[in-house]
């Protein structure tokens, strides 16, 4: 796990502060007594953007400004249907697999990915993950829901678990918050107890993909998943080593199907 305020590339976001506002300030914001600002760019948000429609109009309801709502459109272009990496060649017809996924297929059947880890999406994830803003889970879950429209509905949803020491430091598990929001939106059971993380993993920032895989191997324990179809949720795919280890453990324990939902994929270093 990375230090608070630091993204997958090891950079620190100056606006991402772990401090939460005092209760009276939070209450004033809820009652509309303070100026509301876009969580991505910080500009004041008013009634502008009423001409937007579809998913972008829904984003305005979560407090985004029109410009950032447009910037959060799903990114196009061909990418691997298993890991989400951009492909070096144009994809025509059926989604293609990258060379790594052809050589070593991941343990999940489907992937729902909103976009690449950059721009407005990156800034929003940083606010959510390191800025003490778990309330952004519903906005981000809406992005995941659009991306997951091609996946069959599961029997249960769960987020990638954190070790208890990591959870204590941050105060919340962003993957679990996303899973809870998805479960509420779709009236699906959220079952975090199906997958545990009894072993802590060293900080992965700056490590190679092979080293990340070695660190993640054997860190998860699944129970009670036999015959279940599951959605496994995470915020960012960096190398995929954590998701691969979790997916392999779920399949080993008898899960009938595992699909992965993630907000963003980082580029290869």
TrEMBL record:
<comment type="similarity">
    <text>Belongs to the ComF/GntX family.</text>
</comment>
<protein>
    <submittedName>
        <fullName>Competence protein F homolog, phosphoribosyltransferase domain protein YhgH required for utilization of DNA as sole source of carbon and energy</fullName>
    </submittedName>
</protein>
<feature type="domain" description="Phosphoribosyltransferase">
    <location>
        <begin position="224"/>
        <end position="265"/>
    </location>
</feature>
<keyword id="KW-0808">Transferase</keyword>
<dbReference type="InterPro" id="IPR029057">
    <property type="entry name" value="PRTase-like"/>
</dbReference>
<keyword id="KW-0328">Glycosyltransferase</keyword>
<dbReference type="Pfam" id="PF00156">
    <property type="entry name" value="Pribosyltran"/>
</dbReference>
<dbReference type="GO" id="GO:0016757">
    <property type="term" value="F:glycosyltransferase activity"/>
</dbReference>
<dbReference type="InterPro" id="IPR051910">
    <property type="entry name" value="ComF/GntX_DNA_util-trans"/>
</dbReference>
<dbReference type="InterPro" id="IPR000836">
    <property type="entry name" value="PRTase_dom"/>
</dbReference>
């Amino acid at each position: 796990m990375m230090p608070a305020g630091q993204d997958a590339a090891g950079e620190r976001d100056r606006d991402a502060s772990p401090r939460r506002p005092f209760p009276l300030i939070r209450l004033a914001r809820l009652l509309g007594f303070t100026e509301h600002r876009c969580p991505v760019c910080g500009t004041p948000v008013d009634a502008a953007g009423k001409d937007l429609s579809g998913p972008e109009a829904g984003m305005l309801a979560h407090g985004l400004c029109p410009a950032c709502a447009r910037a959060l459109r799903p990114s196009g272009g061909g990418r691997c249907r298993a890991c989400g990496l951009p492909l070096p060649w144009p994809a025509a017809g059926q989604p293609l697999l990258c060379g790594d996924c052809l050589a070593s297929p991941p343990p999940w059947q489907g992937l729902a990915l909103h976009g690449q880890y950059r721009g407005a999406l990156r800034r929003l994830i940083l606010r959510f993950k390191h800025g003490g803003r778990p309330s952004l889970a519903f906005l981000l879950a809406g992005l995941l829901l659009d991306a997951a429209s091609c996946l069959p509905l599961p029997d249960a949803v769960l987020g990638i678990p954190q070790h208890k020491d990591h959870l204590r430091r941050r105060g919340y598990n962003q993957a679990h918050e996303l899973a809870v929001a998805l479960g509420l939106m779709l009236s699906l059971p959220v079952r975090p107890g199906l997958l545990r993380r009894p072993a802590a993993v060293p900080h992965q920032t700056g490590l190679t993909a092979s080293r990340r895989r070695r660190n993640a191997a054997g860190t998860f324990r699944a129970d009670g998943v036999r015959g279940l179809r599951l959605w496994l949720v995470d915020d960012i795919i960096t190398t995929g080593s954590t998701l691969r280890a979790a997916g392999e453990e779920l399949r080993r324990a008898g899960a009938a199907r595992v699909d992965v939902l993630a907000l963003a994929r980082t580029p290869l270093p």
